[in-house]
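Progress report, Aim 2. The chain analyzed during this reporting quarter is listed below.
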Amino acid sequence: MSIKLNEQIAFLRKSRGITQDELAKEFGISNQAVSKWESGQSCPDIQLLPQLAEYFAVSIDELMGYKPADTSQDILLLLRNMIQELPTPEDAQLALKIACTLHAILFSKEMTAPGAGNPGWDTEDAVLHASEGEWGLSGIHLPEITTQMRMASVFFSANKNLQLNNPHIHFICSVLQSLGNANSLKTFLGIYQLTIASEETYAGIPQIVAECELSETTVNACIQKDLHEYLLKKQEKESLYRIKGQYLHVIPLLAMLCNIG
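Predicted C-alpha cells for the chain:
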C-alpha cells in the first residue's frame, strides 16, 4: 500500500482539525488507542473501519490507502468544489490555508532533498504551523516556480510565464515612486487598515490622521499629490476614501517582501 492505514487516519484527522481525544470520544475508546493506531502499534478493530470511513467521509478503500492516487485534475476539481460549497468568509480562509500549506510542502521538499543538509527538518510540524499563518519569511526559487511566504501572505509565480513589457515597467515605476515618500506610504497603509475589513467601508481624514499619527495637512497633501489615482473617493459630509480594488494587493506584497517585524 502506498499509504498505510495508520498514516491515513492521522492525515484525515489532522486535515479536519480533530484532536486524538475528540476522535477517541467519537468512537468510545481511549486517546491512547488512537495514538497507537496512528503510530502503527495497533490497528482499529475491523468492525470500526466502515464507521471510520463514514466519519471521515471517505470510502474504505481510501481509508486503507488502496485507492490509486488522484490525478492532478481530480485534486483541482475537489478543491474547487470544496471552496465553492463553503460560505464566505470560510471559503477565503480555506483558500489561504491551502496556499500556505502548498508553500510549506514545496519548501519542506527542498529542505529534505538529498544533500540539503537538514536531517532534523520536521515536515509535518512545518506544514502545520505554515497552514496557520505562523511562519516568518521563507522563499524558494526554482526554474519552474518561485514561492515566498511571510506569515499569512503567500506569493507564487510560474517563472517561465513571466513577462514585463514597457507599459508594465512604467506602471511599476510610477507606483514605487508614489509610495517612495514615507508619509505617503504611511497614509496608504492607514487607509488600507481602516477599510480592508469591508468593501463598503470608507475612511475620513480624521480617522486616517489618527491611524497614521500624521498631521491633517500632511495626510491631505499625500492624498492629493501621491495617492489620488489609487483611491476611491466618496463625498458625504466629508471626503471619504478607500483603496481601489486593483491596488489592495500592494500592502500585503510589501509586508511579505520587506521582512519587517
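The chain has 13 helices and six strands. The longest helix spans residues 90-111. These observations will guide the mutagenesis work planned for the next reporting period.
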